[in-house]
């Protein structure tokens, strides 16, 4: 392309300080260096993780910063050493990567790449420790290696999944993070058998994606657990057959679920990050074969406490990162699930706004009104 090797000026939404509205600015985006790719972002979505680090309440504040990590785009140019991607390829950026060389990448059991695993505090490229974004010569920090709230961004090649060019980017862009995380937690880690009972703790976008996985697995009963009763109606679209609100009961919710299911659910997936929900998720599964999977991220102070007999009674507890999907190897196959109409994505997309109205997307999520809001760069 004519822009290859040159600095590109474009619009980006910059977070100048914690909790303050994002500002649409003209930024300079440098050309990609070795093993990097410059991507033209066409659609980007808002994930709760963006909001969490924009608020910067529980972590190191890194500002000014370009947030965003769920998106779909087209390769504009590639840096030295990049052979798997070429200009024009359709890609999904991913907050974690797959170098294909480390022990994790070579293992069939792990997707936690040594080189490209998520680093929320790093605001620069791993190759040279520099930012590819500037405003009037002043560096603007990156976010989890993606920074998709920009018309152009620079990403390590290992954090880009090449996908079917026929797939609609305005829909499959949401597979970059939360939807794949929940879906994979069920399909790849919990692995319910057809006819089994599954409980999902937390009915946000990730939890509903986990529920979608239970539906695809042929679960006979899918129990949604959430403190907000209004979420049950929406959850029915994802296969939810029963709803339990822990606040409606005087006993621990795990005891309620065990009574409902004659001994416990076969599989349970926790998508809240709340330590009590995590404990309930594990303790509610059936002895002998029950499997519980933790997806949510707890606080640093949290401690998981349960009686060791739960393990001796052959209940299994697992954790997962990005649904155990290897980004470059597995995400193209998840996109094909959508293309075959096995996976429904439209029901996750509750709002659409132009990129210039990105603060509206933040407001919708803060109010709890949005699962996924898609922003189009081409207004």
Automatic annotation (TrEMBL):
Broad class of enzyme this protein falls into: oxidoreductase
Domain Alcohol dehydrogenase-like C-terminal span(s) in chain numbering: 205-337
Subcellular location, principal: cytoplasm
Alphabetically ordered keywords of this record: Cytoplasm, Metal-binding, NAD, Oxidoreductase, Zinc
One GO term describing the cellular component: cytosol
Subcellular location: Cytoplasm
Domain named Alcohol dehydrogenase-like N-terminal: residues: 35-163
Record-linked InterPro entries: ADH-like_C (IPR013149), ADH-like_N (IPR013154), ADH_Zn_CS (IPR002328), GroES-like_sf (IPR011032), NAD(P)-bd_dom_sf (IPR036291)
Similarity comment: family membership: Belongs to the zinc-containing alcohol dehydrogenase family.
Subunit details: Homodimer.
Name by which UniProt lists this protein: alcohol dehydrogenase
Record organism: Oryza ridleyi
């Amino acid at each position: 392309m004519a822009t290859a090797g040159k600095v590109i000026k474009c619009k980006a939404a910059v977070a100048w300080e914690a909790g303050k509205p994002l500002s649409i600015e003209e930024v300079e985006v440098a050309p990609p260096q070795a093993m990097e790719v410059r991507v033209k972002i066409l659609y980007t979505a808002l994930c709760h993780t963006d909001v969490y680090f924009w608020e910067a309440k529980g972590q190191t504040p890194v500002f000014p910063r370009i947030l965003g990590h769920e998106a779909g785009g087209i390769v504009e140019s590639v840096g030295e050493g990049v052979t798997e991607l070429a200009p024009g390829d359709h890609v999904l950026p991913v907050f974690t990567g797959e170098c294909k060389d480390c022990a994790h990448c070579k293992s069939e059991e792990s997707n936690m790449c040594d080189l490209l695993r998520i680093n929320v505090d790093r605001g620069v490229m791993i190759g040279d420790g520099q930012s590819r974004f500037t405003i009037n010569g002043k560096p603007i920090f990156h976010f989890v290696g993606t920074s998709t709230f920009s018309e152009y961004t620079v990403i390590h090649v290992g954090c880009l999944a090449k996908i079917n060019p026929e797939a609609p980017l305005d829909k499959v862009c949401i597979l970059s993070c939360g939807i794949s995380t929940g879906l994979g937690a069920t399909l790849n880690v919990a692995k319910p058998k057809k006819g089994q009972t599954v409980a999902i703790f937390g009915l946000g976008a990730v939890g509903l994606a986990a529920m979608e996985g239970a539906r695809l697995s042929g679960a006979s009963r899918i129990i949604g657990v959430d403190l907000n009763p209004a979420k049950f109606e929406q959850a029915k679209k994802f296969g939810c057959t029963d709803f339990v609100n822990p606040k409606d009961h005087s006993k621990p919710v795990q005891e309620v679920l065990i009574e409902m299911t004659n001994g416990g659910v076969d599989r349970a997936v926790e998508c809240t990050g709340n330590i009590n929900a995590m404990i309930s998720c594990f303790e509610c599964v059936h002895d002998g074969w029950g499997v519980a999977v933790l997806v949510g991220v707890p606080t640093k102070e949290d401690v998981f406490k349960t009686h060791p007999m739960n393990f001796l009674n052959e209940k299994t507890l697992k954790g997962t990162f990005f649904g155990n999907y290897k980004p470059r190897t597995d995400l193209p196959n998840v996109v094909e699930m959508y293309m075959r109409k096995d996976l429904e994505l439209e029901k996750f997309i509750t709002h659409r706004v132009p990129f210039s109205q990105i603060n509206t997307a933040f407001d919708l999520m803060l109010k709890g009104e949005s699962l996924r809001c898609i922003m189009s760069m081409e207004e």
